[in-house]
Amino acid sequence: MSQRSTVANIFIQAILDAAARRGLDRPALLRKAGIDQEVLSNPEMRLSVDQYSNLLRLVINQLDDELFGLSSRSIKPGSFAMMCHATIHCQNLRLALERAGAFYRLLTDSFRFRLTEHGDEARIRAIYEPDEARNSRFSLETVFVVALRWGSWLIDRHIAPDQILFTFDKPDYKKEYEAIFACNMQFGQQYNELIFPRRYLDMPVVQSPATLDHFLALLPGPMLLRYQNDDSTTAQVKRLLDDADCMAAVTLDQLAIQLHTTPQTLRRHLRAEGSSFRSIKESLQRDKAIYLLTRQQYPIQEVAQHLGFSEPSAFHRAFRKWTDETPASCIARYRANSRRTG
Predict the structure, then answer these.
(1) Peptide bond just before 197 cis, omega within 30 deg
(2) Domains contained in the chain, CATH given
(3) Which residues, given as ranges, of the chain have pLDDT below 50?
């Protein structure tokens, strides 16, 4: 089996060590996971992604902790899923990352991460409390891998990092890092930071509640493999609509031609994924409208024109239908929240 489809012993040991610190028995865990006990003594032994996934699920369930005991405060199973549900309707990756950071600040004081932007760079800085972190190296590896894989899935683009900075010394297994992150890495730095092109932050979230259910059902598998673009019909329709010069003018018949299918087949595939052309189009228009009104501070009339509405009154009616509030009240609410949190 290739290196890319297996997990190195060092990461297996990190999970087992974290579980052992919380009182679990390593050999017993391996037996229940159906894994050869040789993994305890053979540093060259590797597990398949499926085997490693089984071990992770077992440790999470037995510890009742999604962070495997790496945080001083347990993160209850299901927390990551709730975070995903809280971010699935975000306009773009930037808003999703900001909301994810706020979500986890409510759950633990052991670590937090902060998104910053510098020129063409975006940085995710992971901050650990030194007296509370149990295994900061493995914790940081986990945080950065999840950020990359989950973020890539949200925008349906593989996020290629430019550089990763770590505060700890270079580990013996640096080559494993190269296979996972495929970028320049610096050790012994002042901060722990994942650095990637800023352009990814503006890319829209193209996933939906229906595709999220499928994603969550496969966990932790999607976190262990480099992201490949989602080929679901919903994701393809979202990409085409988002790339269109005028989203409002795009018809289902036009999309069917672009996807080399018939309108009837396209409707059927979307329905099977719990979606529809109308709902996708309206959700994208809604999210783009909110983003332009609040984050970009475009005038209401310009937003209406940008989204293809011939009259501001038509945009007002649509916006109230999407959000149950007027564009003006949405702007006022956003500004009030910004003042309270600023």
Answers:
(1) no
(2) 3-63 (no CATH), 79-202 (no CATH), 231-341 (1.10.10.60)
(3) 1-4, 131-134, 341-342
